[in-house]
Amino acid sequence: ASRATRVATAIGQLVAFAFIIIGLFRFFNGAGFAGLWMTFIGWFLLDAARSTYAQFETIERLRGVRVRDIMAGDWAIVDAKTSLQTFVHDHLLKSAKRCFVVEEKGHVVGIVTPHEVKDVDREKWSQLTVAEVMLSLEKLHAVKPATSLTEALETMGREDINQLPVMSNGHLDGIISRSHILRLLQTRAELQV
User: Fold this and answer.
1) What single string gives the DSSP state of each residue in 21-53?
2) How many CA atoms lie within 13 A of 73 on its CB side?
3) Which one of 53, 77, 92, 102 is most buried, by most CB atoms within 10 A?
4) Three-class DSSP category at 121
5) Assigned superfamily of 67-188
6) Helix axis angle, 33-62 to 178-191, nearest 10°
7) Using CA of residue 129, residue 124, residue 97, residue 58, what is the dihedral sign?
């Protein structure tokens, strides 16, 4: 499949370059807007071919890797009753972590990230609790440890979120984030594997 994808990408780029060259030729030989339009179509096709190949390479680099292989097994915990102001000043601004597990009476009830906090007016930080702005477990689409990384990445993209809880049998096993996946991709690209 990888060879076929490379060939298809090369053909797509060749067609795109042909559109660009013919369009420029027509533009400079009096075709005006029609020639320019053809050049833009070629440019669009070239970008699409490159993007498709980059996406294919990403999927190939993630093939065979499961969520359990790169999930974070340690996570920062914040109590659900903590005010947003305390959370921001004592947790977010004093650690490099961006995702916090929210617990209530010893049970995991959700996660909170800077994304949820930034939408709240600062004047209300002292009045609201973490529980009031968190993403509850019911709203989150948790993944299982055996889920493929490509499936987890697709879920993050579809739901427009950066972290997913990893759960099995109602128990939190870890957290997977886009940054975990990006670090893996960067390492594999550096090692060309």
Assistant:
1) HHHHHHIIIIITHHHHHHHHHHHHHHHHHHHHH
2) 4
3) 102
4) coil
5) CBS-domain (3.10.580.10)
6) 90
7) positive
Q: What ranges do the domains of the chain cover?
A: 2-62, 67-188
What per-residue string of b and e applies to 133-144 under the rule 16 or more CB within 10 Å gives b? bbbebeebebbe
Residue 60 is predicted with a pLDDT of: 81
Residue by residue, DSSP assigns 57-104 as HHHHHHTT-BHHHH-BS--EEEETT-BHHHHHHHTGGGSS---EEEEE
Q: Are 150 and 178 in contact (CB under 8 A)?
A: no
pTM of the model: 0.67
Q: What is the per-residue pLDDT across 18-38, written as a single tens digit (0 to 9) for each?
A: 999 999 999 899 888 888 899
What are the residues whose beta carbons fall under 8 Å from the beta carbon of 48, sequence distance 6 or more? 12
